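WARN retry 2 of 3 for item q-0093 after timeout on previous attempt; input resubmitted unchanged.
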Amino acid sequence: SDDWLGGWTLLYWGWWLSWSPFVGMFIARISRGRTIREFVFGVLFVPAGFTLLWMTFFGNTAIDLIKNQGATALAAVVKEDVSLALFQFLEYFPFSTVLSFFAMLMVIVFFVTSADSGAMVVDTLASGGDTHTPVWQRIFWAGLMGVVAITLLLAGGLSALQTVTIASALPFAVVLLFSIYGLIKALRIDVHKRDSQQLATIAPTASRNPIPWQRRLRNIGYFPKRSLVKRFIDEVVSEAMDMVSQELEKQSTPSHIDRSRDDRITFEVDLGDDMNFIYETRLRYYNQPSFALSGMTDEEKDEEHRYYRAEIHLKEGGQDYDIMGWNKEQIIHDILDQYEKHIHFLHLLGKK
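OK item q-0093 returned
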């Protein structure tokens, strides 16, 4: 009927709109490293494709059972309580008990995974973006979601849950419009940042204090341990940042260095109303390539398979290069290079 088509169409729209902020943020978090094209393709076509297959196989089969096979009991259950329709539908197939068990298992898995992702995102938002929150806090949000769902089901059944889903989708539709605007704005900033990286002409320096090529070759094939890279960051990188910070203070440009976290050190220049400049050195670990482990026993490989790098991260993300083994002058010049590119980026942003 028209009422059924209209009601379920609104529910379907409302379901996608109400869940999109939580599921979108959850998938974005676990999709780190993917391109925007890959992310959009996945979140649009994978769920839509699954829904198409579900409607085609199960929906068409149910319609055929009712219209051509005389399954009047199925039609009655759908009309009376749609939440039981799937299990009544499975009664028309062999091994219906086994199929019903797996259907119930899938429903439980779906709810648990959905509640887990939703609780994680709500917990992150409620904590101001902090992803390292206590376990009890996430359990609290997951439990609260379960209590709300159970209360709605007990109060008005599936129709009450559908009504709340549709009602909650309306304000989120407005929020999503602002999210779209923010995404477009962020993408434009990324374009300007890329242009600044390509067009910025860095002033030539008289000397970069190059290291001897023999030492450079030795550094290429060297895979340092955590303690060595950590000491390099605490001593060499930290001192280089201090020198740049002191010089900026002489020029009345405020800056500060954050050493609060064990695996990184962050240098930030305060540019007032403009986007601050951030130069961060992070301690990252990787597994050694196989050629570096040749001649070792399995036990030695387990102990030696991990090595560490001092990687540079800017405000827009990781730059994927390692400064381990650089001297202070080289690090200072790298900070200045990135700072000059950032100033050029702000210039392009102001022009456009």
